[in-house]
Amino acid sequence: MDSQLIERLTRELALxxxxxxxxxxxxxGVSANLGFAPALESLTIDLTTAFGxxxxxxxxxxxxxxxxxxxxxxxxxxxxxKPSIASNEDSMIARGLRLDAPELFSVAEAQCLVVPLRGWRxxxxxxxxxxxxxDVDSPLFIETGADLGRQLSIAIERVLVLSEVLxxxxxxxxxxxxxxxxxxLAALGQFIAGIAHEINNPLQGVLGYAELMLETxxxxxxxxxxxxxxxxxxxxxxxxVRNLLVFTGSQRSPRxxxxxxxxxxxxxxxxxxxxxxxxxxxxxxxxxxxxxxxGDALRLQQAFLNILINAEQAIASASVxxxxxxxxxxxxxxxxxxxxxSGPGIPDDVMPRIFDPFFTTKDVGxxxxxxxxxxxxxxxxxxxxxxxxxxALGGARFSIQLPAEW
Length: 406
Ligand SMILES: Nc1ncnc2c1ncn2[C@@H]1O[C@H](COP(=O)(O)OP(=O)(O)OP(=O)(O)O)[C@@H](O)[C@H]1O
Ligand SMILES: [Mg+2]
Description:
Number of helices: 9
Distance between the termini: 80 Å
Largest sheet: 6 strands, antiparallel
CATH architecture of the largest domain: 2-Layer Sandwich
Strand order of the largest sheet: 3-2-1-6-5-4
Bound molecules: adenosine-5'-triphosphate, magnesium ion
């Protein structure tokens, strides 16, 4: 064998080894929880060094919105801008998506290898290697680029498939926990409805007699204030019983088409004075015209009020001025309402229990723990979904999805 060939083969072997090493580090980086984006970033740097080129970048394709976004670049200035282009554009990068094999392009006197990244029946993106590689001729550059593209596509697709599967699992878990919550509420609902009715009758008797006695008792009697106390406490118990009846859904009115943005506006108006006093700014954002929802306006307003009052109480607990934003938007199959607050948020250990009836973190007499259970029941009764998470405002975010009138 002539010495030139041996030298060429040695260089090729060394290059292939470095590329393998870079891919291995990429796969390890993803598994070691470094995350997809940082692992891609280090890969572009390793590839730039291995080929001895100016820069390397990886563009990922979003099939849904048909755009290519720069996912990683060895050049920090380029990666900081995160540009994106339409996948049907006639640029070199977008064309790369439709290539079968890598192709060398000339851009402003500099050469550029564009490598398509292809998964199982889907275009994943493009790998772009810019500059003249050191000690590598064009045929070898294209050949190693093709091998690299194939292996990188497999590695990237594995990550994507895994994250899709994990996404499905968490969706299934959410569905399951919603079903468990629904079953829990239904069973508890029947039980509570029975008790609430039984308590309501004697309670109305106590209230009625206390009221009668208050009207007839001598205004100077020393028992007057005790009697008033009995009346107020009985009234508080009656309020709890009323709430229980709302929770069990035993008080329903006929369903009508409801203009949700208007209903939210009315609900905010009810709380405006209290919010002003507590230095809380409430804003209603988003769409003002949305599909009508078929439902019980009073009960839906009760659900919004319970969520809004919780947000106010959460902010007030920190004794600083705060913000609540209610954002409305159309969504399939109807609309979504987000209620964000700037309060302290919901701790992780509290979150799984907030929709349970009688769960409260508030002091005795401050909360019965029924507000969210009632809201959950009402939204569910309207074939909607109520969820809670952390808000970008720093506190909690409650989201209500409601289907539109059908
Ligand atoms: N916006 C919020 N920020 C922080 N924590 C919240 C928020 N909303 C609800 N929570 C938590 O969820 C718990 C349950 O709320 P829920 O409305 O069901 O009951 P409550 O407010 O304690 O009592 P009630 O509504 O019966 O007066 C609260 O005690 C609180 O810990
Ligand atoms: Mg509450």
